[in-house]
Amino acid sequence: MYDRTIAELSSALSRRECSSVELTQATLAAIEQASGLNAFITITAEQALAEAEAADARRADGEAGPLTGVPIAHKDIFCTEGVRTSCGSRMLDTFVPPYDAFVVEQLRAAGAVMVGKTNMDEFAMGSSNETSWYGPARNPWDQTTVPGGSSGGSAAAVAARLVPAATGTDTGGSIRQPAALTGISGLKPTYGRISRYGMIAFASSLDQAGPMATTAEDLALMLGAMAGFDERDSTCVDQSVPNYHGLLSEHGLKGLRIGLPREYFNTEGVDPEVASAIETAVAAMEAAGAQLKEISLPNTELAVPVYYVIAPAEASSNLSRFDGVRYGHRCSDPVDLEDLYKRSRGEGFGEEVKRRIMVGTYALSAGYYDAYYLKAQQVRRMIRDDFARAFDEVDVIAGPTAPTTAFGLGAKADDPVQMYLSDIFTIAVNLAGLPALSIPAGFGGGKPIGLQLIGNYFDEARLLGAAHGYQQITDWHMQRPSLEG
């Protein structure tokens, strides 16, 4: 029962085929049995069962919504009142927030049951979940490979059907890339569509929360609960939230204008099996009534270097608050304030986080700000303008989510540049602030391949409708891994 979609579970709960308590108990048992995936940092069993009892009471009173009583997991970057929020780092290993993040508030109000906090790259910095202080999460399709990052724990948990959905964050592809590598659906909404309040910041102009689930239909249900205006986040847009689930059938494939950037299909480093699967996917969408058009995004190749100036610069600023004084890891027996700062930060942060702090600090330093950070922001605008011109001609843009299928644990750990290139097709979306999603579109060597669809600002309904339409004519999203062995 527990391994169904949100839509199926909601229907089963409404028909009294099971209770939320029974569903939550089964979910917790499945998570324990699959502990080898290391998908979770914290399990909140006692709290989950209490929330499930409350959800059953709401259903009995006729006050249930589609998420009421459905178990979900939160990426451990979202503050949860009374529950450790580590951000995958030793720095916050003992941090217990006194408040909930906006996303947590919204999903709790919708009646969803939190069963735990998922593993992630430290401070969301990584593309493989290998920078986590708690060790890497593993890809349930092949446990010798990575699940992607930074939302790797959420992706692994959903792919293994431990939970029907989980929250994630996407700064440069960290929802879409792990979704692709684990064969699930993941959505990065428009920047500002979901409040970042209570989401521990990595790069504030790029970070965006979003849902991860098995189907586009479930993404629509999750987004409907997660989105909304919040005055506590100055970047959150005050715009009404559409009925994403109700609009799925109105935004299908028939008549949809799909742009195919030549830069996405003629790029060195794309696995031939990935390229073939994406070409087959867009051909299937064309057969279902979509119109294909070749377009150009000429500044695509600049996205990675621009991102790795802007994101580390913002990370350097955001992470300066972790100094061992007010909260977080504190070194033992410091001799003076300078020693406290140096050793607390040196011990609390991992290598990748330190690398990005150093790069960001350099880019913002006197004499280099104009040459690096300011120039990167100018090129960022050029990338945004590329998309604006493209959306004058098409409704959505399609291409690979990641250039390869899941790679082996440790395969890129010693080569940061190769690791960064894992996000070559996703980063530009964050720089422009656009919405995008990844859905399963095939397999290469027994490993999932993801199709990325990019939409115009606040056009999530069209994106979800297109993805749902594709999932009506294919069954890639229904495939699931075997956890035996």
* SSE order: HHEHEHEHEHEEHEHHEHHHHEHHEEH
The average pLDDT value, as a whole number, equals 96
**Helix/strand-derived class?**
alpha/beta
Number of helices: 16
Query: What's the arrangement of strands in the largest beta sheet?
Result: 4-6-5-10-11-9-7-8
Low-confidence segments: none
End-to-end separation: 22 Å
Instruction: Tell me the radius of gyration.
Output: 21 Å
Which strand-content bin applies to the residues? 5-15%
Estimated helix fraction: 25-40%
In one word, what is the shape?
globular
How is the main sheet built?
8 strands, mixed
The overall strand count is 11
Question: How does this structure look, described?
Answer:
The protein is α/β, with parallel strands linked by helices. It has helices spanning 6-14, 20-33, 45-60, 102-109, 152-159, 176-182, 216-226, 262-265, 272-287, 303-318, 337-348, 351-364, 369-390, 416-420, 427-432, 460-473; strands at 40-43, 71-75, 113-118, 165-169, 185-188, 209-213, 257-261, 291-295, 396-400, 436-444, 447-455. The strands form 2 sheets. The chain has an 8-stranded mixed β-sheet. The protein has a 3-stranded mixed β-sheet with strand order 1-3-2. A hairpin with a 2-residue loop joins strand 10 and strand 11. It starts with 5 loop residues before the first helix and ends in a 12-residue tail after the last helix. 57% of the residues are buried.
